[in-house]
Write a structure and sequence with these properties.
Length: about 80
Amino acid sequence: MLCSKITVIVNDQKKKHGSKIDIYTVKVGEGNSAEEIKKAKLATHGIIAKDKAGKLLTKVDGHTYGKEKVDEVIGKILAATK
């Protein structure tokens, strides 16, 4: 489960950029999250950012980051859409 701090940050980014890119959260253990975490080589959870073709753009381990890191990831995704 995402901590409330990160959930708020991600939801704000959805409001701002949701018309340009797909932003979604998945709880660890739901869907194919375990496989995605393994493929991205994350320890347990974090951010996995992919381009439209499914290629890994960047990843962030854990959730000890804040708004600046989330903004950085969103910037990388947006740059990949140009």
